[in-house]
């Protein structure tokens, strides 16, 4: 008995890449879910800020994040996957609230937050435009991006214990570069049929935006001397 068409993933046929209308639909669904995810994250962040939620333990933050990431991946082919996406993005927004509250308490802090948000938006538009306008296949960057993210993540965990400012700045700079490339890579993968599941594509783009914002926030703070 044949399985019904999966509405969350556009299948490839006869080994051919998904292109044209199918790819456009995946891209449209991805951007729609990404927009909703940003609304959920903003709402969760606002709730944490207005409730004066304190800083959440970093290991709890990471543990819940990976748990929700795993759940999203497991549920990516069902409606529950969309709820998992909202859970993941809401959690990241919620944990960001206390950080923004901290910046609100220091002189020029909100200017740094605004600049980081503006920089994140600019990079997202620019890297997406490169993939959409050039139509180039950036799959050759896959290994570089994945290995780079793994190395940067391990370095960030190590720096929790060592607390070396220079390493923190280097990790932030690496995440800015890698997250920017990941946005371009993921967009390219959608239009060339390398990614047909818009739930997974949304998570990839959202996490890239989150890492971009947090990394730019760290870099701007360091350059501003507000550490």
From TrEMBL:
Matches recorded under InterPro entries: Bax_inhibitor_1-related
Top-level taxonomic group: Bacteria
GO cellular component, one term: plasma membrane
Keyword Transmembrane appears in the UniProt entry: yes
Chain segments annotated as transmembrane: 31-49, 55-72, 79-100, 112-133, 140-161, 167-185, 197-223
Keywords annotated in UniProt: Cell membrane, Membrane, Transmembrane, Transmembrane helix
Subcellular location: Cell membrane
Membrane disposition: Multi-pass membrane protein
PANTHER family: BAX INHIBITOR-RELATED (PTHR23291), MODULATOR OF FTSH PROTEASE YCCA (PTHR23291:SF115)
Family the UniProt entry places it in: Belongs to the BI1 family.
Protein name: Carrier/transport protein
Organism name: Alcanivorax nanhaiticus
């Amino acid at each position: 008995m044949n399985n019904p068409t999966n509405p969350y993933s556009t299948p490839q046929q006869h080994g051919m890449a998904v292109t044209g209308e199918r790819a456009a639909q995946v891209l449209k669904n991805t951007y729609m879910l990404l927009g909703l995810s940003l609304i959920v994250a903003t709402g969760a962040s606002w709730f944490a800020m207005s409730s004066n939620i304190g800083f959440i333990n970093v290991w709890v933050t990471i543990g819940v994040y990976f748990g929700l990431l795993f759940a999203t991946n497991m549920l990516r082919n069902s409606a529950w996957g969309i709820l998992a996406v909202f859970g993941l993005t809401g959690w990241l927004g919620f944990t960001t609230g206390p950080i923004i509250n901290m910046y609100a308490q220091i002189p020029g802090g909100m200017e740094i937050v605004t600049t980081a948000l503006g920089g994140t938006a600019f990079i997202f538009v620019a890297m997406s435009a490169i993939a959409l306008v050039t139509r180039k296949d950036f799959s050759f960057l896959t290994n570089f991006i994945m290995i780079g993210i793994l190395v940067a993540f391990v370095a960030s965990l190590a720096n929790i214990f060592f607390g070396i400012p220079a390493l923190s700045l280097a990790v932030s700079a690496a995440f800015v570069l890698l997250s920017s490339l990941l946005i371009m890579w993921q967009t390219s993968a959608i239009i060339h049929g390398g990614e047909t599941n818009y739930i997974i594509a949304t998570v990839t783009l959202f996490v890239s935006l989150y890492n971009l914002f947090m990394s730019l926030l760290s870099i701007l703070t360091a350059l501003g001397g507000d550490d």
